[in-house]
Structures are given as structure tokens and as C-alpha cells.
TrEMBL record:
It comes from Oncorhynchus kisutch (Coho salmon). One of its GO terms (cellular component) is cytosol. PROSITE patterns: CRAL_TRIO, GOLD, PRELI_MSF1. The gene is SEC14L1. Residues 488-643 form the GOLD domain. One of its GO terms (molecular function) is RIG-I binding. One of its GO terms (biological process) is negative regulation of RIG-I signaling pathway. Residues 1-173 form the PRELI/MSF1 domain. Pfam families: CRAL_TRIO, CRAL_TRIO_N, PRELI. It comes from the Eukaryota. Residues 286-462 form the CRAL-TRIO domain. Coiled coil: none annotated. This is SEC14 like lipid binding 1. Signal peptide: none annotated.
Amino acid sequence: VIKHYESNARFIVGQGPYVAYERRFPTCHLIPMFVDSEVLEETESEDGSVHNVQRRCKLDVDAPRLLKRIAGVDYVYFSQENTLNKRERTLHIESHNETFSNRVIIHELCSYSAHPENEDWTCFEQSASLDIKSFFGFESTVEKIAMKQYASSIKKGKEIIEFYLNQLEEEGISHVPRWTPSLDMENQTGTPDEFSKLCVCVVDKLDADYIKRYLGDLTPLQESCLIRLRQWLQESHKGKIPKDEHILRFLRARDFNMEKAREILCQSLTWRKQHQVDYLLETWTSPQVLSDYYTGGWHHHDKEGRPLYILRLGQMDTKGLVRALGEESLLRHVLSINEEGLRRCEENTKVFGRPISCWTCLVDLEGLNMRHLWRPGVKALLRIIEVVEANYPETLGRLLILRAPRVFPVLWTLVSPFIDENTRKKFLIYAGNDYQGPGGLLDYIDKEIIPDFLGGECMCEVPEGGLVPKSLYRTAEELENEDISLWTETIYQSASVFKGAPHEVVLEIIDAASVITWDFDVCKGDVVFHLYHSKRAPQPPRKDPLVGQHSSITTPGGNNVQLIDKSWTLGLDYSMVESPLTCKEGESVQGSHVTRWPGFYILQWRFHTMPGSASTNLPRVDDVLASLQVSSHKCKVMYYTEVIGSEDFRLVAVATCISGFPYWRLAGGFIYLHCWT
């Protein structure tokens, strides 16, 4: 995103970016390889709103002299077509190579457009494809040269447009009027108000006071990423979306890479829904053994207003807690701590009048020894870190590790690879009593609230810990049967869907009046959901030969099963009983079907290819270059199905509605409410 040049409160607005872009031609000194260009054809629509220019560009590609001699050329020629739509305020640029087009195919698309959330910003999107059929045995060399040139051109794109905007400013051009349609009402249809709507687009943007009060400093690019990701969530989840502060954490965790942030946020929202994490603070009751022996708790706040959590890890009997509670209870307790931390951040934001989005954690390692390196305990710690890292990014503002003993490097070696690099940068480690000196604890925490066990005067209510009595230990069988796992055991199943390899689930129906229900989340990619009926029993689950190409298909995190035999004919061997339902990435879909016949019903998730659209996906340079070499055709869904007998089910049909995230959506136009007697 390029923000228009600003100097002395003047802006280059209207058609400024296009005027600046046109100054690149016929040649541009900022692009050394761009030698020359000539206009082949230039046209304009009758109303002057669309301007089309076709050019032939001459490039001096930075390639080895030997390669040029073998190829027999000194220059490479490209055809370029520019289409300026003044009404829609867009500029589309499409180019392809003329030279060696029978050996190498290069296709590039670029576009400039007014930002949908702030008309004073210009969006620039660029993508390209490279197909090398043959090139005198130098295919690999040509590929490297093409990628190098392409990466270089992207990096210089913003620099070049700003150079010419500056040039316009220096020439005293601070305003380039926008195009307006003819006001000759005899030759046009519509009212004057409608004409004005064609020229002026009023859009929302984040209020500056709101940003300062609740979000903190954001660059225009960061603000744009937040707005676009929030808009995508609104479209996918129909209104019920996380707060801006929560979305912003995921963006910051991925350096504001939209695609990566969206992926992990979508996965986290699915995880929260499946395990009812939003209700954890209301539903989770800490066992007494945790209250007595878990040496952690909240303690005031640091100098920056961040909530302060204290963990006396050295005094904690990790082995005893794991043996007495199991990993699941420990995980739930840690998640409740994180949920409480989010609540306290919101509270402190109101108290201090500035954004507080993370907390400070003080870990006292006094008493840490080899007993804490008990393998099952370390394993539990690593798994907890994994869940927290994935679902609570950028919530740790600072981690103060005090009184680190000699055994600490061993624990750090085991744990640090599982901690995000950005998080590790927030760690401050003090050995012995170093925390009492300059640069120590007093730099981050007020003297009045330093806990008594660290030499302060403030009483700390964190339990002192001690050894958990062995009488409280429970067997593995007792722990396993206690509750549903938050790790991997869930009523939901995971499946991978590939291009050409759908995932299918069969349900045998005996009672013709039964109800099939489904609930699934599209974690990655877009899918089409089908429901079929067959009188014949499908063959036992088999793996498609295509699946062998994907190593992840055999992992517990995702499987792929196909049941409909390729020899079957739709309409003869099986029939469609629900219209296909296209589901986008991030959607949560629930629905029901009342069966009319006994037999076998097959639920199918099929790969769906969406039309190319970059309005919500703005890949980085690395992502674009990677796409030239790797094509991903994988989707992932997490689903749950159930068959309810007619004797246990009372059906209420209501008009289709969408209630937010999660929302009800099914083919057929009805929602079925389940009622059990």
C-alpha cells in the first residue's frame, strides 16, 4: 500500500498515481534494464472514462554474456497493455514476453486501485507466472535470472512511484482532478446525485483517537492490514468477530503478513469454538490441589501498566502436579490464566487510558534442580507452550527470569526451540542476585510491589508450593477417563481435501425418517459440500493414488478417504439429495437433512478453486516467488456428523437465517432445531 506523497499539507490526489506512473515511459532511468518502449495502439471510450494503451517494451536483461550469445539476442521484448478506468479509479497492467515465447512464457499482472477503506491510499498488487519449457539446457539459470529480476522490480516499485510523485510536487502540481462524467442530462440517465456517487466514494477508516486509545501506534500499512482482515472476518463469519486488539496480535505475530496472519487466526478461532475456550473462565473450577500447590498468581502491574503474573517455578512440584492432575487439567489451568490475562489487559486499558495488550511475567527459579527435568513434566510443558504460542500470540510483553541456577541452561535448551523468536527477544535472564542491581527488577516494577520473597515489602499471595502428597497421585487410567482432551481427543475429526481427491464419509440409515446432522469448519482453502444417497454400500475406505504424493495425508492431523467408486454413475448408482454448498476458508457450517429413504448417505467435501482475486490477499515478494515454483491444492476441514433417530427427534423448520460466528447455513433453505425428550 502506497500512501500518497505529502508535503506542507498538500496532497497529490485524484489521478495522481496514474500521472506519476505514465512518466516511466518511454524509458525510466530508475529501471536500468528498461531501455525503451513504443506505443503500438491507444484508444479511449466515448465518454473518456476508459483509456487503453498497448506498448512494446525493450529490456536489457542482466544475464551472463555467454547466455546472451548462445540465445543470439541482446535485448528481450515484452508486450504491455495498460487500461485506466477513471470511473472506477483503477489501472490494470498486463504484460507477456514476445522474445522466446515458444520456449519461455512469462505473464505478469499489476493493478493500482483506490483503497476501499481510505480513498487517500493507493493499493498496488502484482503477480506473475513463469513457465520454462526449454532453453538450450540453461533452464535453471533462466529461472534464477527471472526470479532475481522480478524480485528487484517489486522492491523498487514503491520507490519509483514516490520519485515521480515527488517530481510532480516539485513542479507545483499538488492536485490532479478526478475524472467526472458528462453532466449533459439529455444524453445520460440517472439523477445528479447518482452522478456524484460515481465520483465520490465515502469509506470508513479507523478513527485516530480510537487507534491511540485502544490499539497503539499503527503505520498506514498496518492499519490497512487490520481493516482488511477484519473485513474478511465480517464477510466470513457474518458479523461476530474478535475484537480489533485480538486480530492485531495475530497480525503482529506474523509481521503483518495478511495471508499468514489470517491462517493462524482462522485456526485459533476454530480451536476456541471446538473447546469452548470463550467460556473457560465461567466454567473452569480450579481443583484444590492446584490452589494449594500451583505456585503462580497475578500480582498488581508493572511500570507500564501491564498486568504482572508471578510464577515461582523453582518451588513447584511439576512431577507431583502432573501425577495428581494430568496434562489436561494443567493445560486448562494455564489457558484460564491466559484468558484472565486478556481480561486484565482490557481492564488496565480503561484504567490507564492507553492501550495495554500484553502482560509481564516474572519467573523465580530459586530451587530449580534436576527434579524439574522429569521427562513427562518437560513433555507437558512443551505441549502447553505449543498451544499457548498458537492461540495467544503477542500477549507476553516481557518475561523476567530471576535467580537462574546452573541447571537452567539445560531446561532452556529443551524449551527454547518451541518458543517463537519474537517471544524469545522479550526474555530477560538474571543469575543469582543480579536482579537487584542496575538494569534489574526496579527498572520494570515499582519498589512498592516487589514481592517479599524477592526482598521487597509487598505481601504476595502466590502459594509457596511444596511437594504434592503421593496420596493425591492418580493412575493413568483414572486421568484418561476423567474428561475430554484438549490436545487431540475431540468429537471433531480432521480431513484433508485435495484437488481431484475429495474426502467422503458414509452413514448407513435404517429408519427412513432419520435426521443427518453435520457441523464442520473450513480451516484451509475453499470446499464444496455435497450429500449423496445410494442403495448400494460403498467399497471399504481406500486411499486415492493421488494422495500418496502428499506426505501429510498419513499424519493424525488429516486423512483423506474416498468411497464413491469411479465406475459409479451419478443418477444411476447414486443420487444427489442436497444442492452443492460452496464454503469459504474460515467458515463454520452447520446443517441437517431429513432422510426420505433408507440406504447409504455419503457426505463429501470437494476441492473448490476460487476465481483469481487479490482484493483480500496481498502476497509478499517471497510468497509470490514461491508460487512460481509450488502450487498448493490442499484444503483442510474439521467435521462432526451425527444421525438422530425419529423417535428421539422433534423437527422444527424455520426460515433460513445467519446468526454470526458460528452461524447456521445449509442447502435446502431450512434450519432444523434439535430437541430431545
